[in-house]
Amino acid sequence: MFLRVVCVFCVFSCVSMQYVPPFTEDCRTGMYPPNGPTFKGAVTWYTVDLDLLPSKRWTEIITDKKNELINMVQAIKDLADEFVPSGRLEELIDKALPLMVDTLPYPFNEEIKGIAAASGVPLGEVVLFNIFYEIFTVCTSLVAEDPDGNLIHARNLDFGLFMGWDIKNQSWVITELLKPLVVNVDFRRNNSTVFQSTNFAGYVGMLTGVRPYMFTLTMNERFSLDGGYIGILEWILGKRDGVWMSFLTRSVLENATSYAEAKKLLSDTKLLAPAYFILGGNQSGEACIITRSRTHNLNPLELDVQHGRWYVLETNYDHWKMPLFLDDRRTPAMKCMNQTTQANVSIKTVYDVLSTKPVLNKLTTYTTLMEVSKGKLESYIRACPNPCMPW
């Protein structure tokens, strides 16, 4: 947390004070269908055939997104060189991480090898790209119940904090390079949809997805001293009794057949990193925030419409604690949800909430909207014109 605060003030030195908290704006309206300067484009759909060999599943996507993936990985390496100028970290990426891939669970290890082969990106760099999100993902997720009992699950995926601030363009380097990699993926088996996800091309885990007509799921990072880097280090050293967060969410979306089963797996499975799992079901009242340490489910928060809790909302701070004052996206998001009211909640109004600064910020790569009762997932690439918070 100390490093986080230090880096915050480093960024402030490069950012106009008009963007400094408590910079917020009035709750937006009329933002849907997506339009205007906050909308950079719809997300392209692809199919991943789960009946194919794992090494072949991502070939079409990677063929289309090869150059974007190469640019992204190069930027990560450039950042690594800035922190470790001796080049030793890059040597570790190229020599040690390829050895790590076979320790990863099947089929993810084979999918990663296939991505490396299809893209021409060295295997170690593809491994790095796939463990990147275990360490730092900043997001806003919510599930709301409308007056008819239908559940709407939505999220902003924010990524790239402290990863190269472009002073000229007032943007994060990694965030902007991720946007062209955003894809929607229809995972199919026996010619039928199993689940759908919004993903980054080249990344085999899941951060956002829907098992149509069954449940919806998003994952947000949880900051902790016992963080993802500890779990990854333990994994490298041979202690492998925990599960990678994004591999767990992928497995749940692929294999769980009910809200209750998904909830149990997300609550009980030992993890490499702490996390927030935001889960929605297909019945009235089925939504929760699962706050995880690496070993325990802490103080779960359930939807409780009868007592006025018609939505649950998570950013990156425990719901029973105040968020960091420099990074309070929760308060403006809840203000806008409360202002909307349950009577008016819909895909349109939820998109308005996620379009309100600082819920929408310079880190926001995409917004996803899901309606489980319709088996629906739609996503949009976002932009945050100035004045806009850097996070």
TrEMBL record:
Signal peptide per UniProt: 1-17
Q: Where in the cell is it found?
A: Lysosome; Secreted
The alphabetized list of GO BP terms reads: fatty acid metabolic process; sphingolipid metabolic process
Domain named Acid ceramidase N-terminal: which ranges? 42-103
Stretches assigned to the Choloylglycine hydrolase/NAAA C-terminal domain: 139-376
Key word Lipid metabolism present = yes
Q: Which EC number(s) does the record attach to this protein? A: 3.5.1.23
Q: Which family does it belong to?
A: Belongs to the acid ceramidase family.
Q: Which PANTHER family did the record assign?
A: ACID AMIDASE (PTHR28583), ACID CERAMIDASE (PTHR28583:SF1)
Name of protein: Acid ceramidase
Organism of derivation: Silurus meridionalis
